[in-house]
Target: F-box domain-containing protein
Amino acid sequence: MATAVERVFSIVELHEDILLQLPILDLLMAQKVSKQWQSVSNSSIKIKRRLSFTKPDHVKMENWASCRPVQSELLRPFFSIIAHPSGQYIPGIPWTCYHIQLAPGAKLILFKYPKASWRKMWLFQPLVTYYFSYVSGAVNAKIPIEGQPLEKVAWSIEAIDKTEKFLKKDTRHVLEKALRNRLQLLPCADVERRDEEPKPHSEPNMLT
Model:
């Protein structure tokens, strides 16, 4: 005969509600408890949204006041990226894989793992059109990425970090052109932009 606890956890809706009460890191690790827990976590839209593994419900963005994107709880300690539809920005702080403390000799193993869960996470809820980052204390980068998971965002920032070492002030347009050609923009069907897009001549340079 099943115990009361077993009966509760056998009901998917109750199991889901219980898991959603966990702190964010515990919720992420709960998938390791058993195949049943993993199945519930992988099939629950609410849990995926809490872990930033899926896009939010349909959101209408009319202006900055109604947008108010929120950084993922898991990613906030490692990123400082500000989005603003008007093109204004506040420089953040640089972020690389070296900011994640791992055991000696294994610093990059988890970060480079091809199936690492951080690669599937969405940095903001709701999604935003532009990401702004202050890279390596030298370059302010405006990265036009629309609806992409963190793996592509981190790659873009890394590309700037590597490229800036070879740039002079009068050749920054080369990096801007390279980024535009290399980034694969993914349309965000879940966000309807209703505010007026900045005009090309009034937008700040990607690198200032």
